[in-house]
């Protein structure tokens, strides 16, 4: 883990409904050191859901993957860790536990950021993941992602991070907002710095990183070992290298992304969101986005790309 982050500290974040195989391939081609699955339910794996497994298994062209799990039952995490390690083998880089998601449908079951209220259970989950992994392949890192705290003005991140380190966490990602902020307001990078000072394991900073320069600045300000980029990747796989693409390159990248969606069996409706992201700021962007909303097949989106370039 240390070696990978030292070589390239910029990581593509796990994003529900976004970070599918096509998205990960684009991010890695743009320079991301690591790319995550979407959040994967340990309950879904427990009950053998094929749709859940579709989120876990990387495409053949992906070199490796970080899998992020969510849930609240340590036993289910242990089962999931064993099953994922067995299925993915050497392509599993790490197993991450989501302790940050603020969405009510996740937290109401005690998962996501709800775990910030229960450091003991969270530590049990980390240990359960290790137990599950060790039955198949020892040495796979277990990491966690957290927020500043669950409620405004109740910062728990530094102390919580120390508890996770004691439980065997290899690295910890910190988003500098409270869970009940959702994505409103500004992320407090000072919280990331406080976690860096509290633990000896690598800390990954997250929150309000939209450009390559933002990522560099976060590292300089906080001392974090790496930076996780989420919304800054929207339509911008170049964010990991700092290169500014031309309009032609953006359209070509959109076309490539559409082809990847088609090749990996993703629902083509995702390309509508991609169109809004890749076309942002371009001449006639609003019109092209409206046209994209009428597209259904990969061919429709590719023809739209050709029309923009004409």
Share of residues in strands = 15-25%
Runs with pLDDT <50, length 5+?
A: none
Radius of gyration: 19 Å
Based on CA inertia axes, which overall geometry fits?
Answer: globular
Give the tally of structural domains: 2
Number of strands: 8
Query: In percent, how helical is the residue content?
Result: 40-55%
Cα distance, first to last residue?
Answer: 46 Å
Strand order of the largest sheet: 1-2-3-4-5-6-7-8
| H and E order | HEHEHHEHEHHEHEHEHEHHHH
List the helices and strands and how they pair.
Blueprint: H1 2-7, E1 10-12, H2 21-30, E2 34-41, H3 42-46, H4 50-56, E3 65-70, H5 74-88, E4 92-99, H6 104-107, H7 119-134, E5 142-149, H8 157-167, E6 171-178, H9 189-198, E7 203-206, H10 212-222, E8 226-229, H11 247-263, H12 270-278, H13 285-293, H14 298-309
Parallel strand pairs: 1-2, 1-8, 2-3, 3-4, 4-5, 5-6, 6-7, 7-8
